[in-house]
Amino acid sequence: PDAPLRRAMPSAPLRRPTAGRRLTVDAAVAALRPQEPLHCLRPQAVTDAARAFVAAFPGDVLYAVKCNAEPTMLRAIAAGGVAHFDCASEGEVRLVRSLFPEAAIHFMHPVKSRAAIRTAWSQHGVRDFVLDTDGELTKVLEETSGGAGELGLVVRLALPKGPAAYDLSGKFGAAPEEAAALLRAARPHAARLGLSFHVGSQCMDPAAWTRALALAAQVIAAAGVAVEIVDVGGGFPVAYPGSTPPALALFMDAIRDGAALLPPGVRLWAEPGRALVAGGASVVVQVQARRGDALYVNDGVYGALSDAGAPGFRFPHRLLRPDEAASAVLRDFTLFGPTCDSADVMRGPWSLPVDVREGDWIEIGQLGAYGTALRTAFNGFDRALVTEVTDSPMLATAGYEAGETRAA
Ligand SMILES: *Cc1c(COP(=O)(O)O)cnc(C)c1O
Fold first, then answer.
1. Would you say the pTM of this structure is higher than 0.85?
2. Measured between alpha carbons, how far is residue 6 from residues 11, 13, 14, 374, 377 in Å?
3. What is the pLDDT of residues 88-137, one digit of tens each?
4. Ligand 1 centroid vs 59 CA: distance in angstroms?
5. Ligand 1: residue whose CA is nearest its atom 3
6. Is-cis flag, bond preceding 349, omega within 30?
7. 201 Cβ closer than 6 Å to some ligand 1 atom
8. How far is the CA of 324 from the centre of ligand 1 (A)?
9. What are the chain's domains?
């Protein structure tokens, strides 16, 4: 029989010591004195950001689930008015469907297993699939029995390498001529036909969307077939220390400028991930040892802090010492994660009180995106706590605060 493979070191689920209560981060740390990383979720901030994006974007907003798939976060996003979800795996599809029976789920990974396509189509009501090759078009058509007149097909267009922090052009997407040919090939099978792109994650330049939309307009013209949807992807940036993006409204202006080049009547989609959830979580780590300006803490690049490792992202942070004041004088520290891998280092620099010591806690913010979602069980350091808090994000991103709405 199909006995599940038993993993030697399974990932422990996050434990919820304060279930049902929402405290401040300070109160939670004082009460729990956590010896494991404490993930502090801010569902209200996520709802506010989702609501602001939905109000600003002139089309449908699909949340990119991979960015953070915690049910608390997904519910907060839905509460902000997002009713569409961009999923990339059967697991994400199943999770979203279990939480939201009515949501529109879009399968936006250009390379899917046949089983995933079939299950999404026949069991979870997924109707929209992305593709960037003829082979994937064939797979989708075969596994959906030709689509029964309900199939949405979206062709992923590759973009030239852009200015984003994470370039996504190398892996997926059809070159412009191929994309035009795929639009023509898909048209007869599609109840809805779309073209999508992704400018790359944490893209600070609004004009990247205008350029991409201009290219999309050329591809649609070259294809010579009707296209109902253009999906401008994700990539909307958030604030990190030393890096302040232009306000959300400027990205929307750039999208409107580019969309003006599209044939009339095309519906826009967007797939934001980071922008909706980054501010929605912080992680409180504990200092386990200090050696000079090196602090050994209980979470690292194999936990929620992978972007603080090799990618070199900087994060807002502050010391927490509930019983006593710390020095007002700051200096720079390097953080080391708990695993035995020498790559488990986060150079920061992390500016903290000069007298930081074993037992102190450090709250690290902007980890709602690609932070809490990337934890592993490597080296057995997988135990963590989670709590919901009432705090605001540790850094605000212009345009995403509560009450920030702008008519589409
Ligand atoms: C990761 C991803 C997103 C979300 O990107 P962000 O930079 O987090 O906004 C959206 N669409 C696709 C296809 C992705 O792979």
1. yes
2. 12, 16, 19, 21, 14
3. 999 999 999 999 999 999 999 999 999 999 999 999 999 999 999 999 99
4. 17
5. 234
6. yes
7. yes
8. 42
9. 6-42+279-388 (2.40.37.10), 43-277 (3.20.20.10)
